[in-house]
């Protein structure tokens, strides 16, 4: 049990968090209660860096995407100087939404209501008839943005946590050789799942359920998360293949100068993370039914297709896999207490041509099926944890990342709730 903070009286939610039993999920109402969801928005998504998009989605000056986090909408745009910026999607006049499309291109940002016009750097350029107020005071409200080797993180905090620098320093040497910052989007699919965002994340953080993913299991070793002594008899052959593929992958990484040491701290940092290179089964090249590459043009010119997956988990809301031929990036964005958007983005080399270098259906097949299966698991769990009969059950050892996610969540929520009471 976490130590009780010393200031003032803890709230009911703080007691619930303080009494969390490590090694088990949360009590049901933490997944179903609207007040807890509001606290999640405030203390997790409102205070910590989260993965919002990729540089591939804002490649040229004027390219933008809008990112919704519950009722908030944030514009991520590449400005005229080539810098990625982010702003609240709220006009400084009377608050109208500026951009209503999920993505696109603009020269300037012109409000559709009274035509106030902002530059791509957020400065108010034109406000018809406005007098007596310095336009410099009416720039769009900025959101902290940080690009890390092609990934774009946002922080809604007034003072964003600084350890994004640490994460950038450790993740960049892994990501940079794969050229994500120069990649292009081959496909993006938004899936609305019928579950609380924490259940979506918990489901991602283990492969105990991977028997439910027949397509993924063609290339994803089913022994993920298991120590050698925990591998059941039926998975022994897979474990032996994994061990050999892991040694082979390590040798290739050494040869190519690619870092492959496991970096894992999913509990303490603000940008809690896991960075790992892991082999793939079958041909070992990509997520496909044979494990062979599905994009003819490699993502980066590394001269080797059999690189498994560079897998990165970040908290609170993301995971991604970088393969030799493409990358697939997932971000989790809360829509409501029991509704969550899972956005999947497939990235390929900027010069790869659909229909020539890749077939879109083949590229997206494994994760389209896997996402649908995960979505069903999440919906079943949401229904179950809302049932008065639910009691949190014990995790197996292969679910340690789920436990770490909840340890991170619990600590960050308590930090936020305690700070809120003290201020
Ligand atoms: S609300 Fe945007 S110009 Fe008036
Ligand atoms: Fe899954």
Question: How is this structure best described in words?
Answer:
This protein is α+β, with helices and mostly antiparallel strands. The chain is built from eight helices and 17 strands. It folds into two domains: 50-148, 3-layer Sandwich (Rieske Iron-sulfur Protein); 165-388 and 393-398, Naphthalene 1,2-dioxygenase Alpha Subunit, Chain A, domain 1 (Alpha-Beta Complex), CATH 3.90.380. It starts with 11 loop residues before the first helix and ends with a helix. The mean pLDDT is 95. Bound molecules: FE2/S2 (inorganic) cluster (FES) and fe (ii) ion. FE2/S2 (inorganic) cluster is lined by residues 91, 93-96, 111, 113-114, 116.
What characteristics describe this protein?
22% strand; alpha+beta; globular; Rieske Iron-sulfur Protein; binds FE2/S2 (inorganic) cluster; 423 residues; 7-stranded antiparallel sheet; 2 domains; Naphthalene 1,2-dioxygenase Alpha Subunit, Chain A, domain 1; 27% helix; binds fe (ii) ion
Could you say what the CATH architecture of the largest domain is?
Alpha-Beta Complex
By secondary-structure content and strand pairing, the structural class works out as alpha+beta
State the distance separating the first and last CA atoms: 25 Å
- CATH homologous superfamily of the largest domain? Naphthalene 1,2-dioxygenase Alpha Subunit, Chain A, domain 1
Strand order of the largest sheet: 11-17-16-15-14-13-12
Beta-strand segment tally: 17
CATH class of the largest domain: Alpha Beta
Main beta sheet, described? 7 strands, antiparallel
Bound molecules: FE2/S2 (inorganic) cluster, fe (ii) ion
Give me the strand/helix succession: HHHEEEEEEEEEEHEHHEEEEEEHH
Mean pLDDT: 95
**CA-based shape:** globular
Number of helices: 8
Stated plainly, the CATH topology of the largest domain is called Naphthalene 1,2-dioxygenase Alpha Subunit, Chain A, domain 1
Number of domains: 2
Low-confidence stretches: none
Report the oligomer: single chain
């Amino acid at each position: 049990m976490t130590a009780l903070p010393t200031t003032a009286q803890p709230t009911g939610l703080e007691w619930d968090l303080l009494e969390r039993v490590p090694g088990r999920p949360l009590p049901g109402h933490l997944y179903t209660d609207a007040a807890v969801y509001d606290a999640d928005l405030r203390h997790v998504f409102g205070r910590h860096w989260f993965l919002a998009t990729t540089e591939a989605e804002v490649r040229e000056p004027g390219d933008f995407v809008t990112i919704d986090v519950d009722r908030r909408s944030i514009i991520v745009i590449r400005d005229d100087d080539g810098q990625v910026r982010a702003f609240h999607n709220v006009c400084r006049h009377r608050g109208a939404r500026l951009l209503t499309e999920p993505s696109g291109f603009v020269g300037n940002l012109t409000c559709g209501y009274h035509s106030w016009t902002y530059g791509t750097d957020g400065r108010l350029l034109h406000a018809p008839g406005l007098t007596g107020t310095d336009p410099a005071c009416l720039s769009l409200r900025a959101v902290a943005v940080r690009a890390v080797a092609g990934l774009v993180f946002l922080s809604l905090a007034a003072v964003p946590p600084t350890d994004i620098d640490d994460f950038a320093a450790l993740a960049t040497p892994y990501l940079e050789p794969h050229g994500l910052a120069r990649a292009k989007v081959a496909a993006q699919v938004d899936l609305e799942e019928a579950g609380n965002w924490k259940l979506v994340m918990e489901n991602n953080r283990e492969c105990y359920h991977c028997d439910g993913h027949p397509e993924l299991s063609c290339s994803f070793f089913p022994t993920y998360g298991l120590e050698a002594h925990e591998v059941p008899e039926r998975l022994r052959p897979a474990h032996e293949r994994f061990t050999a593929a892991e040694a082979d992958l390590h040798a290739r990484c050494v040869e190519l100068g690619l870092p492959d040491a496991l970096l894992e701290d999913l509990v303490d940092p603000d940008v809690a993370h896991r960075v790992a290179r892991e082999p793939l089964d079958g041909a070992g090249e990509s997520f496909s039914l044979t494990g062979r590459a599905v994009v003819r043009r490699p993502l980066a010119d590394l001269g080797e297709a059999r690189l498994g997956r560079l897998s990165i988990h970040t908290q609170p809301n993301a995971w991604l896999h970088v393969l030799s031929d493409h990358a697939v990036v997932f971000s989790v964005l809360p829509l409501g207490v029991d509704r969550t958007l899972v956005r999947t983005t497939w990235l390929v080399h900027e010069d790869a041509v659909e229909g020539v270098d890749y077939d879109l259906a083949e590229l997206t097949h494994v994760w389209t099926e896997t996402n649908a299966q995960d979505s069903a698991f999440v919906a079943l769990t949401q229904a179950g944890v809302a049932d008065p009969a639910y009691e949190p059950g014990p995790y197996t050892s292969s679910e340690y990342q789920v436990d770490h996610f909840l340890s991170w969540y619990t600590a960050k929520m308590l930090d936020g709730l305690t700070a809120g009471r003290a201020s």
